[in-house]
Amino acid sequence: MVAGWLIRVACVVLALAAVLPARAAPVEELTGYRLSDYRAPTPAGLTGAVTLDADGVRGLLARGEALPLFVQRLDRSPTLPGAPWLLSKPYRQIPGSVWLPNVGLGAPDPATLAWFQRHLDRLSGGDRARGLLFYCLSDCWLSWNAAKRALSLGHTRVYWFPAGIDGWLEAGLPSEEATPLPGP
Description:
This protein has 184 residues and is α/β, with parallel strands linked by helices. 33% of the residues lie in helices and 11% in strands. Residues 94-177 form the Rhodanese domain.
């Protein structure tokens, strides 16, 4: 009788284990940049940056403490250097954002890296203490890489929003159509 009860309990435990989502192991922060598989779970934070949720981002932007930078990757190259990007679909961004495509790649080409640095200098007015908020999509390393790179370039007030535009929209916050800056 006890053996039958134990077997039933074991079956229930196994059935629940099969249907309940497994908790993913925490993702460790890298010492370098993520070089591939950018759409994957990210670390809980980024050393040197402030990690925010949607409410934190909303407050930060309402106080005017940071410039939001959307770093979604574009798979198509611009038609010509400096020409508009060819978009395969419309994208949404946090209002007031600047879209700097492909700057979150782990190993950007020299032209993209120089383009990123030039735009950070221009957008911050050369003030390395100007708040910069990096985001992309949820579970996306591109914003983590871009924020890390901004820190390496000497920017001191770097914010990271790992939930990205997906988390922003899920929170019911307003968005606008995104238009990328012309590429390098």
